[in-house]
Amino acid sequence: MDSLRLCYLVPAHHLLATAGPSRNVLSLAGALVAEGARVTVAVRRVIAAEVPAGVRVVELDPTAPLDADPPDDSAMRGLGVAEFARYLGRIHAFLARAAADCDVFLEKTWLLSGTLSRRAFALGRAGLPVENFVPDPARHAGGACKRLRLGLARRLAGRALRGLPRILVETPELADAFVRAYGVARERLVVVPPGVDRERFRPRPQAEARAALGLDPAACILLYVGVLDATHDLRPLLEALAALGDARPAGLRLHLVGEGPQRGVLETFARVHRLPVRFHGRRPHAEIPLWIAAADLCLAPYRREVFANRELGYATMKIPEYLAVGRPVVSVPSGRARALIRHGESGFLFDNRSELWQTFLRDLPGRERLAAMGAMAARVPLPDWRESARACLGVCRELLVRRREAA
User: Fold this and answer.
1) 343: burial class by Cβ within 10 Å (0-12, 13-18, 19+)?
2) Burial level of 81, CB count in 10 A (0-12/13-18/19+)?
3) Which of 106, 191, 278, 387 could lock onto 383 through a cystine, CB 3.0 to 4.6 A?
4) What is the DSSP string of 293-352?
5) Which domains are delineated in the chain?
6) What mean pLDDT do residues 36-59 have?
7) What DSSP element (H or E) covers 13?
8) How far apart are CA 103 and CA 41, in angstroms?
9) Are the C-beta atoms of 208 and 240 separated by less than 8 Å?
10) Mean predicted confidence (pLDDT) in 51-65
11) pTM, rounded to two decimals
12) Are 279 and 263 in contact (CB under 8 A)?
C-alpha cells in the first residue's frame, strides 16, 4: 500500500510542545512519519512549536486571540455559543479542504468527539477518534445553561461515536469507560497506549544530572514534572510536609517542574509553611530527562474523583517516562498506574491523601534503597512510539479496506 496521508485533528488544543497533551500528539505524529506516513497536525493555534521532522502543522483558527501564557488545553475554554459555532464552522471548512489530500483523519478527544470522524466518512475519507478521556457529567461546573450545553454535546458525541467502526483508546480502563458512558460496542474499541521516546528517556548517572542542573548531590530529591492543576493534586503532599514539620526526613527536597493554575496557591502554601520546595516553572522538553535522572523518587499524584468511576482512565505519559529513566514512582492505585508500578519494587501506590503521605514520608526508604528500586523500574516493559504508530496505522489501513469494500 502507498504511503498513508493522515491529518491529525486536535481542535481542543493549542500547540505547546513542552506540555503533555501536545507532546502526546507530536510524538505519535513523528512516529507515524518514521513509519512512512505523511502527517499534518491541525491545532487551533500554535503557541510554541518543537515539531518532529516531516510533520506539517497548521492552525485551524489563526486569528483567534491568545492569552499571555495559555496552556495547550485551553483552546475551547470559555467559548460562548456564537464563538463556538464560528470555530466549528472553521473546523468543518478545513476538513472539506483537507479531504482532497488525506486518506484518514485522526480526531483527538474534544467536546464533540466522533463528529469529525463521521464527517470524514461523509466526505469519502476515513475517520478515527484517538481518545484519552471520558468526562464525568457529575462534575460539570457552571450554571444550568452550561450544564445543558455540555449534556447536549455529550449526547451528540455519543451518537457519533456509536456509529464509527473503530475508536482508539489509550487504556483498557478507558475502553470500559467508553462502553459505560456512550454505549459504544466493546469490539469497536482498540487499545493503543502511548509510547516512550527511548532516545530521550533512558537511564543516566544521577550525579552527572545533578551537576548539570546545579542540584545538591547529597539531597534526597522528590520530583514532580507536569501541569500544576487540580487533577494532578499536589496539595495533599504539601500539607503532609507542613504537618511533619521537623519530623521530615533529613535532606528532603521537593522539586516541581511545570506550570498551571494551581502554582500560585501551592507557592503561597509552601512559603507560609517554609517547606523545602522549589518551583522551576516550564522547562525545555529536552531537559526533562535530566530532571528525572537527578531525582531519587518521582511523583505522579492524581485526584481519582476527577475521572469517571474514580478510575484513572488515560495513559499518563509521566509514569512511563519516569520508569524509562530508571526512577521509582509514587502514584495512586488506579488505572494504568496500577499496571505499571509494582508496589514496593518499582514504586509505591497509595491514595493521594495528606495522612497517607505523612505515613509514607515518615518511613521514606533511604537513597540506596530508592536507587535499587529505580533499577527495577528501568526493567518495566514499555512500548515505544514506533509501536504505537504501527498499531495506529494498522487500524487506519483496516478502515480504508472497509471503505473500498463498501464502495
Assistant:
1) exposed
2) exposed
3) 387
4) HH-SEEEE---GGGSGGG---S--SHHHHHHHHT--EEE-SSHHHHHH--BTTTEEE--S
5) 5-195+384-406 (3.40.50.2000), 206-377 (3.40.50.2000)
6) 95
7) none
8) 14
9) no
10) 95
11) 0.90
12) yes
